[in-house]
Amino acid sequence: MDLMSYIDKGGIIVYILIILNVIGFTIILWKFFTLPRKNAMINKIKNKVTVNSSILSQIEYEVKKLESGLTIIKNIATIAPLLGLLGTVIGVYKSFEAITQNGLGDPTIFSNGISIALITTIAGLIVAIPHQIAYNHFISMIDGIELKAKKELVGQD
């Protein structure tokens, strides 16, 4: 069975997971290219600090801007396994419905629903795991940028 057969068998839930995956990985790639420049971010904060605004509030403002998009990644990491679980429930339901209509004489009737259940569970986990890892990585990077900015600009540790 090829990949497209699995996707088709998983149904609408797998297609939703693929769309979420594309959205999430677009944000992940964007963050991978924009976040690693810690010194540039510190300099940006230095240049934006004026006499009227405090350094700490400017650091907080810039950190919030760095966090943009991360909520989407976190939501995808949270929602994907739930969608997989929904697919599992739907697959098991279809299995029991098939048994109710046709009896237990043919095990292939039952296996189709179980197959759907497993495919959607796998797809949900495949989407969730890298998004959770990326989210944790980016939050760690942003925390490091914030600490470095506070240390260099305010003298806090």
From TrEMBL:
Superkingdom of the source species: Bacteria
Keywords assigned: Cell membrane, Membrane, Protein transport, Transmembrane, Transmembrane helix, Transport
Subcellular location: Cell inner membrane; Membrane
Record's keyword annotation contains Protein transport: yes
Stretches assigned to the MotA/TolQ/ExbB proton channel domain: 41-147
BP GO terms, sorted: protein import
Membrane topology annotation: Multi-pass membrane protein
Stored InterPro entries: ExbB/TolQ_transport, MotA_ExbB_proton_chnl
GO cellular component, as recorded: plasma membrane
Transmembrane segments: 12-33, 72-93, 113-131
Membrane is among the record's keywords: yes
Record-linked PANTHER family: BIOPOLYMER TRANSPORT PROTEIN EXBB, PROTEIN TOLQ
Family as reported in the entry's similarity comment: Belongs to the exbB/tolQ family.
Name of the protein: TonB system transport protein ExbB
Source organism of this protein record: Arcobacter venerupis
